[in-house]
Amino acid sequence: MAKMMYRDAVRNTIFQEMKRDDSVVVLGEDVVGGMGTPGGPEAIGGIWSTSTGLFGEFGADRVIDTPISESAIVGAAGGLALSGKRPIAELMFADFIGVSLDQIWNQIAKFRYMFGGKTKCPAIIRCIYGAGYNAAAQHSQSPHAILTGMPGLKVVMPSTPADVAGLLRQAIRDDDPVIFMEHKALYGVQGEVPDDPDFCIPFGHARLTRAGQDVTILATGMMVGMAESAADTLAENGIGCDVIDLRTTSPLDEEAILDSVEVTGRLVIVDEAPPRCSLATDLSALVAQKAFASLRAPIEMVTAPHTPIPFARELESAYLPNPDKIEAAVRKALAYN
Amino acid sequence: MQLSREDLLQAYRRMKTIRAFEELLHDEIQTGEIAGFTHLYCGQEAVAVGVCEHLSDDDKIVSTHRGHGHCLAKGCDVEGMMKEIWGSREGLCKGKGGSMHIADVDKGMLGANGIVGAGAPIAVGAAMAAKIDGPDANGKLKVAIAFSGDGACNQGTTFEAMNMAVVTKAPAIFVFENNHYSEHTGFEYAVGTQRDIASRAEAFGMRVWRADGTDFSAVHDTMSEVLEYVRAGNGPAAVEFDTERFYGHFEGDPQRYRAKGELDRIREERDCIKKFRESATEAKLLDGADLDQVDAEVAQAIEKAVVAARAAERPKAEDVLVDVYIDY
Ligand SMILES: Cc1ncc(C[n+]2csc(CCOP(=O)(O)OP(=O)(O)O)c2C)c(N)n1
Ligand SMILES: [Mg+2]
């Protein structure tokens, strides 16, 4: 085990996989940094420091610094993937999915199906997402729901450095297109990461991070820590919660969710995104359909409101879920009988 | 075209206001009082002011992530902007937008923009509207201007917008502010034509101009010609201004991509405000005392705006739900 930050787990996993497999290439804005400047290549890497040192080790053919052109970045990842490479494209902010949407939605996600299963498209789109920086409406969003709803894509949302390492390695070795969503507010989080150079976490396997009999809480990304903190407070008051980190929203570990709800009969879903046509409503529908008989209370959702993300500190914190809101939802679910 | 004393003083006041506004933010950001991402416009003032001095509230501009200068030049209220950046409920956008989304549609300012390259198509739409509305009594069209950086000129949206403006003959003007860097990447790497954005615009079939963006009168004079051409209904045009940004891409950027001494050199040789002062006083158009007085007044206005921003009402949690729709 090695202790490292979430962001270093990203960088180290990419580094190791590029060493292992020549077909892995990286592309994105400032993934080298300093190109065409007096300071020269790598004078400063990208703003998230998740590609530091890659260029020096692997060179310009495999670490491709691109102009600001998200459509072309994602589209090129598609073309690379159809041509035998394993591209890892970076969208500096997940919000820029908007700029590149056609290439994700109409191209990469569908190639295999449209081509009758005759091809594979092992592209990874890394998206840096989430609120917490007061970065306002165009730099804070969590667009996992629209991506999860696109047949053909796998969607990964790690919440710890170990999960970053295991899931990113899995994504790189996976033959399908993967949206790899890194929460910007988790980059500084420290954790133990296994040393095993083949450490992979298979997709579709949720992680139980707290165990309890009373209420099930589902969360992803930054919401996991909030759910854990609510669960810890509740545990001090004799209320036990299962906290389930979904890890991947597509594929989805239905079994882990349904097994837990069968025991607790009460469900709180935490989602950083707005509530309509969301991950929260999707999970809610799943449980209502497949575990209806187990439910002992209406399903509670703690989500952002149906609004864009506001700038001011007070507004952003009112917008976001937090441990208090989660605790209140758990208590509400328990109070129902 | 020689400007009157009043016009020169007004241009100087505007440039100086931008400079003082940004320098204050640069200091305040270190204290942690200001939330979010802030991109400072310092160094490029002559472009925003040299362009916008020609415009009325009915002419539209669309700005970028580095938008404070364009907003101030287009007449957005200093205090309203400061309050917005402070995230106040009294801010120009009620604390919802912050630095990257300042807008004042009544002033013809259709928004700073967090999405690089998003502005140009919006400006084309505004220009189409101006074409529909037709010329004024003097036969002149209103115009819409898209400010874009050397980085933004690489977005497909910018290309599409340029072509669409040409084929629809929209009175749009693409103003490219080439400050040589897009974030940490050099212009010479990212723009394949190297040393030139204007020739790209030209290839789309529009007339182009180029000028030194650190020289106020060069910007202003160039824009006189450009505006005369576009207002007359000749279709779109593009202008590339060579300019400099004095601070990092965002606040906190260590700028290791710059050459040794580059910042000192551009501040010494390429400071548009210093150059304006020197040329206006040397030509005896303005004297130092006039300019010093403007400096003092601007400093006071900025100080007053900060005091007001600090004291302004904070937003309330329920404000989150307001203004998503007009009616729902
Ligand atoms: C679609 C999109 N891609 C990337 C970014 C991140 N980003 C913000 S500013 C910037 C550089 C822009 O460079 P330029 O257009 O030259 O403007 P300047 O910063 O020099 O004013 C980048 C890459 C963004 N905000 N939007
Ligand atoms: Mg630039």
UniProtKB/TrEMBL annotation, chain A:
Cited Pfam families: Transket_pyr, Transketolase_C
Residue ranges constituting the Transketolase-like pyrimidine-binding domain according to the UniProt record: 4-189
Molecular function per GO: oxidoreductase activity
UniProt-listed InterPro entries: THDP-binding, Transketo_C/PFOR_II, Transketolase-like_Pyr-bd, Transketolase_C
Classification of source organism: Bacteria, Pseudomonadati, Pseudomonadota, Alphaproteobacteria, Sphingomonadales
Protein name: Alpha-ketoacid dehydrogenase subunit beta
Annotated source species: Croceicoccus ponticola
UniProtKB keywords: Oxidoreductase
Lineage top rank: taxon: Bacteria
UniProtKB/TrEMBL annotation, chain B:
Top-level lineage group: Bacteria
The keyword Oxidoreductase is annotated on this UniProt entry: yes
A GO MF term: pyruvate dehydrogenase (acetyl-transferring) activity
Organism of origin: Croceicoccus ponticola
Keywords, sorted A to Z: Oxidoreductase, Thiamine pyrophosphate
The keyword Oxidoreductase is assigned to this record: yes
Domain Dehydrogenase E1 component: 13-317
GO biological processes: pyruvate decarboxylation to acetyl-CoA
Database matches in PANTHER family: PYRUVATE DEHYDROGENASE E1 COMPONENT SUBUNIT ALPHA, PYRUVATE DEHYDROGENASE E1 COMPONENT, ALPHA SUBUNIT BACTERIAL AND ORGANELLAR
Reactions catalysed according to its record: N(6)-[(R)-lipoyl]-L-lysyl-[protein] + pyruvate + H(+) = N(6)-[(R)-S(8)-acetyldihydrolipoyl]-L-lysyl-[protein] + CO2
Cofactor: thiamine diphosphate
The protein's role, per its UniProt record: The pyruvate dehydrogenase complex catalyzes the overall conversion of pyruvate to acetyl-CoA and CO(2). It contains multiple copies of three enzymatic components: pyruvate dehydrogenase (E1), dihydrolipoamide acetyltransferase (E2) and lipoamide dehydrogenase (E3).
Protein's recorded name: Thiamine pyrophosphate-dependent dehydrogenase E1 component subunit alpha
